[in-house]
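Batch job 17 of 40 flagged for manual review because the log was empty.
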Amino acid sequence: MDDNTPEKEIIYVGDPMCSWCWGFAPVLQQIESDYSNDAPLRLIVGGLHAFDTDPMSDQYKATIKHHWEQVAEATGQPFNYAFFEREGFVLDTEPACRASVVVRSLKPEALLSLL
């Protein structure tokens, strides 16, 4: 191990547009707050719906909305359901993941709040 590598770390893999990742955000913030001195948090992003190209159908929107409702009920995290009124929206998480990588590179201390 080199001098800059922590002996322990907590690795979190998530997607900035994942509803369960959003639901888990308060817990993740608490973990970071409680353990950052002993085991720094390393955030890795993965594309849940990376490179999707088709606009969301009404059926797909209903499925995703149902998942959001489940997450909101289980976690208490608020969701803005106005999203589902957008016509022609393509659920492509790649740009949000790319933004996360840029923030991690330029201002790593801001990545957790971005996610």
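Reviewer: the log was empty due to a logging misconfiguration, but the result itself is present. The radius of gyration is 16 Å. Unflagging and moving on to job 18.
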